[in-house]
Structures are given as C-alpha cells and as structure tokens.
Amino acid sequence: MTPEQIVTELKALLDDGKVLDDPENLDHYGRDWTKMHAPKPVAVVFPRSTEQVQALVRFANEHRVALVPSGGRTGLSAGAVATNGEVVVAFDYMNQVLDFSPSDRTVHCQAGVITEQLQQFAEDNDLHYPVDFASAGSSQLGGNLSTNAGGIKVIRYGMSRDWVAGLTVVTGKGDVLHLNRDLEKNNTGYDLRHLFIGAEGTLGFITEATMKLTRQPDHLTVLVLGLNDLTNTMDVLQTFQKQIDLTAYEFFSHEAMQHVQTHGSVQAPFETEAPYYALLEFEAVSDQVMDDAMTLFEQCMENGWVMDGVISQSETQAHNLWQLRERISESIAPRTPYKNDISVIVSKVPEFLREIDDVVTHHYPDFEIIWFGHIGDGNLHLNILKPEDMSKDDFFGKCQQVNKWVFEIVERYGGSVSAEHGVGLIKKDYLTYTRSPEEIAYLRGIKQVFDPNGIMNPGKVFDLD
Questions:
Q1: Beta strands 379-385 and 338-343: pairing type?
Q2: Element (DSSP H or E) covering residue 280
Q3: FAD-binding PCMH-type domain spans which residues (predicted)?
C-alpha cells in the first residue's frame, strides 16, 4: 500500500478517532526524548478503545504495516521512535479512569492515563499510587508498564510491575486478552501479565490496566547528608536500614548539585561542601522514629562517613530538599547529555561506579561526568555532558566507544545495561552484555508466538534475524 492509501484506510477504520499525516505531527509523535534517530512515520492514529486498537492491529496484519506505540514520549532508549514508515499508535485519547474499588484498593484505567493523574486520583480517594519519577506529569501508564518503570521509590515500593492487578492487551495477532482478571491469587499456569510488562510493545499493546493502590505515607521526612567518600553511601544505607524503613535513598555528585544551583533558585543544603550527597526519605510517624534518625545520623558522623547533614522540619522543606535531586536532569539538558541507565546489586555499587568513572575520565578527560541515581536499589545514571566546542555527531560517536567500556564493566559485575529505561533502539546492540544467547533465542521465540508477522514495534529490543 502507498502512504496515501494507508492514511485513507485508517481514516475509514477510525471513524470517530483522529488520523494525522502532516510533517509537524509526524515528527512530534514519531519521537521520544532521545535525539539519535530521525522519526519517519507514515501516519499517527489516536484510538479511543481496546476495540479500535484491535481493529488497527488486524488491519496492520492484513496489509503488513508496522505499528509503533506512543505514550508520553518521555522514553530514553528510542523505544517509541518510528524510523521506517510505521503507523504511530498514540494513546492520548485513551485517558479515562474506568472503575475504582475502594475495598480492593484498585483502579482500572486506560493506557493513556498520565502517571500524575493516577497519583492524584489515588490521593483524592485517601490512597496512594507510589510509583514516581521525574516524568510523572507527562508519562502515560501504558508506557510505564511497557518499560516497567521504576523511579525514586523502588527501595520501598518496587517497580511498576509490582502494582499491576490485571491487564487488557491486544496481541500482535489481534487477539484481546484479559490477563489475571485483577485476582490477588491466581495460580493457573503462566502469568502472561509479566511478559507484556517491560516488553516495549513488541508483543502487543497494553490498552487497559488495573493498578493496585496502598495507604498514603505519613509524615514523610527528608534527610540530606554530605558524604566523605563514595563507599560511605553503603555505610549509611546499611546503618539506617537496620532501624528505619526508607521510602527513598538517592545519591548525586557535587557536580550534579552545582548544575542544579546554576540552573535555578535551589540552595545548597548546608555550607559544608561534600564530594557526594545522599538523600534519605522515611515516614516519621512518631517522635521515636525521629529520635532514631538523629541517633543514626550522629553515629554516621562519628564514624567519619558523613561531613554534614540537614533534616526537613516541614513538608515545604522536604519538597525543597527533593529539588536537589529531581532538578538534575532538567539542569543538564542544555548540555546535550549522553545518558546511561545501568544497575548492579546494591553492595557492588561504589566499586562499580568508581571503576566506570575512572575509565571514562581516563579516556576523555575533557568530558564532564554527572552521576546521580537510585542508589538504594543499585540503579545509577551516568550522564556525560557534551563539550561546547564539539559537534553533536562527534560527541555521540565518541560516546559509542564509552558504551563499550561501560558495558564491559557492567557484564563483569553481572549488572544490567538498562535498569529502568528499556532497550529500544539505543540499547539493543548491547543486549548481549546482560542477556545470554540462549535467553535472547527464547525472547525471539516468544515474539514469534505473539506477533508472527513482526508488526509490533519492530526493531526494538532485538532484531528478529
């Protein structure tokens, strides 16, 4: 079919939907936050229901037209980039909360619901949806689940998959499956939910999800500590976890904080300058918990692990301290950062991070490296900033060599080349650093079962050949 014929057929298929094919919208909806691949879709469609998604998939199978899912387009691995004449399926119109069960503490949503919308719905009903990250104001639930998004509260609440009670999906064959039916206990063979969570739309599209909610946290308190050395991150974590259940444990380098301060009106937490900082969050539900926190802080100071620290005395102060961590990405964005999202088991983090930092700074001493991440669950974000006098193409070319060195270290430590951002196009060439050839063969076999014609987000995660 010609592009014109495809657009005509799609408009007839989605009589109450929207089909766009103008250059501006093709460029907008055909990309995500990555800047390494030029979008070239043939059309963008906006279904309103699972039935319309099913009709689209059946049309795509009949005419061998590839489909690429598009949510909030906040991805960092080019998992939602359409580069080769695909039809982009945007879930912006599928943004309704369909049902709510206070007794089950579940909410049934369409895939286009914004993460922050779900969080607010839970709060309005005196409950809490705990999966949280910087893009919560624009990312969509379907995209979160398709990449198994994590974020800043994983140490306490886990990943997105831990909050899924049930899914409705349209497979690559065009079948509609209702997975798990929201049951807490359902021991009837393979749990297919977890194949679609993290699959990046390569097996089919998630159209609806029932998400579990929990109680609202109580008196969240933030403690920011200046650390003497990188290894002290583990000393502090182990000390606090013996007595306090942390809801977050983040870290960032002094260089990262400097960018935040330069970018906006965020003050340093204290006068003492430290090479690294840890941000701890916990529920101060009683005076005893606060007393315990202060005792542990003093213990860390006495052991020489911590140089200085500050603890929030109000919600406003807690929010302001969080800005030191949450504004890092936006503060370095003008420098065209090359981002890497990697992980190892928590105990190996300091040694792992230092080895990578040494390799990159040795080979590229003029590159500025910004470290931050969810260190409490072993997830590190390596950001290399482009020198102002270097072209983007030259910079990204040199970063490809950085990737090789970094991922060789990841492999040696038994880590992951993608902790929470997915594989997409950017990481697929490096999948073998984390997955064995046998595993990848099984992944391809699963893809063949659910998407025999290869129309669902082709070329992402791995190639079929």
A1: antiparallel
A2: strand 276-283
A3: 37-216
CB contact at 8 A, 369 and 357: yes
Q: CB neighbours (10 Å) of residue 295?
A: 11
371, 328 contact by CB (below 8 A): no
- Is the alpha carbon torsion for 109, 212, 158, 130 positive or negative? positive
CATH 3.40.50.10540 fits domain 97-212: no
For the chain, give the percent of residues with pLDDT over 70. Answer: 100
Judge: domain 336-421, CATH 3.30.70.2740: yes
Q: In whole angstroms, what is the distance from residue 253 CA to residue 334 CA?
A: 19
Question: Would you kindly state where each structural domain of the chain is located, as residue ranges?
Answer: 3-90, 97-212, 220-329, 336-421
Q: Which amino acid is at 457?
A: N
Distance CA 91, CA 206 (A): 10
Please give the sequence-ordered ranges of beta strands (E in DSSP) within 172-253, or none if there are none: 176-179, 204-212, 220-227, 246-253
Name residue, tokens 């594989």.
Answer: 423
Mean pLDDT, the chain, integer: 94
Over residues 76-98, the pLDDT tens digits come to 888 999 999 999 999 999 999 99
How many helices (DSSP H) and strands (DSSP E) are in the chain? 15, 16
292, with CB counted inside 10 A (0-12, 13-18, 19+), is middle
What sign for the dihedral angle of Cα 35, 39, 44, 50?
negative
Q: What is the dihedral of CA 174, 180, 186, 190, to 10 degrees?
A: 40
Residue 289 above 80 pLDDT?
A: yes
Question: What DSSP character marks residue 180?
Answer: G
| pLDDT tops 90 at residue 74 | no
Calpha distance 6→42 (Å, rounded): 8
Domain 220-329 architecture: 2-Layer Sandwich (3.30)
